[in-house]
Amino acid sequence: MPMIDTLRRTLLPALLGGLLVAVWLGGGVTEDSTATDEWLQLLALPLLAAAVMVLVAEFPQDGYRRCGIAIALLIVAVPLLQLLPVPAAWWNLPPARGALVADLQQAGVAALRDHWTLAPHATENALWASLPALAAFLAVLAMGAGRRRRLVQAIILLVLFNVGFAFFQVGLPQGSALRLYQEFDAGFGGLLANTNHQATACIIAMVLAVGLAVESRLRVERGETRPHMPWWYAALAGCLLLMVPLSTARAGMAIALPALAAVLLLTGGLRPSRIGRSKRATALALGLALLAIVGVRAALGWMAVDEAEELRHIIRAAAVATGKTEAPLGSGAGSFVPVFETSSPPSLWLAHYVNHAHNEYAQWWLETGWLGMLVLAFALALLAICIWRIARLRSRGGDANLAASCCVAVCAVLAHSWADYPLRTTALMTTTAMLAGLMLGALADALVREKSRRRIRHERGTSVQGDGALPQAAAAEWPRAGHGEDADTTQPA
């Protein structure tokens, strides 16, 4: 259909690029709801509509993209269901709600049992807050494969811009009118109010840059790009790795170094079988081992300081305990602040309220209960399957390389979510959703291409054993199997 083809080729990339820039410029604040967030949510609506139109007309045939769409809709369905009315018997299931009703009765207030959630307004805000990420995820799945590399490059450029802006902000004197955040010192965060999220962003861009460096080296061997491109990407990855300690995120280096090793292994940049036989592979392995030793020692020291001086461990344990009293329903998406304030231990009675649990999984458990944890299990199971299939791919380069680097980037965000809340920031939540969509789409295409290559080789072998000529269909397809922007290659990296 001409209209659908125009949407996929022209309108979707334009709207997606605009949303990506907008969420990075205005979505770095970690408050639950701001006026800028509302504008970003409205900006996501046309992108969501266009993506849905393309997916309805050309629904993906592979199981990976279908499962991804189903899980994304389930995540959005959790706060939507929590806004619905439930019977009083269900509403009273969590033990904490009996105590809440008793307290309200003593104050002369009738308990509201109309909704599943304890804070309908906050849950509605949480539902709206998921729109940019949902729109970005569906748009990436609906978009053609030819735009994927450009989108990855755009994410790297935005992170680099944010690093440059962070240097500019750090150089300004206190009280300067040019400071983005006047109420507090954002440190090296740049556009991101939380410096820990700057570490997450740098790790994402570093992993993607390594993937592009490996891919560029393969393309140089095929004569498809300039010889210096792999070195540019490798230099970018090194610079981004050096930016992680500047964010002062204690978990940053502990995540960055394993992520670097994982992306080199999954993309084929470092093959274990070549260590000891190739000087380049051996030197790279020794360098990674040295970095790992330094990173582990630094991480242990940072974690010791974190245990002694930070409250996040106490907050996480308190959130898990509160979640048990709100099970099986959960208190409602977005309701963390009021629920935690009423149930937190005296050691957490602070001058400022606790805005998040500093652990995405503990907060998701508290707010969504058993249903939310079931959806989380589905998402993690799909990610585990993707990791397994990427590791088993025999071909490297093109879609396989892109799927591997995006997969490691998503895993890095999920790992940092154990000690912080990057997915509560619109910029990182939307970027992670894009990376998940890129991973699923690229993996599905890589598997299709690998299956096609095996079939062609089988037909070629059968034909050689017979009359020595390729079947006509296979002969027509074989020359195209190893070329193009997203082509795969089996040459060692």
From TrEMBL:
Residues of the O-antigen ligase-related domain: 237-376
Transmembrane annotation, as ranges: 40-57, 69-91, 126-144, 151-172, 198-218, 230-247, 253-270, 282-305, 369-388, 400-419, 425-448
Keywords: Membrane, Transmembrane, Transmembrane helix
Cellular component aspect of the GO annotation: membrane
Region described as Disordered: 457-493
Localization terms from the record: Membrane
Domain of life: Bacteria
Membrane topology note: Multi-pass membrane protein
Name of this protein: O-antigen ligase-related domain-containing protein
Organism of provenance: Thermomonas aquatica
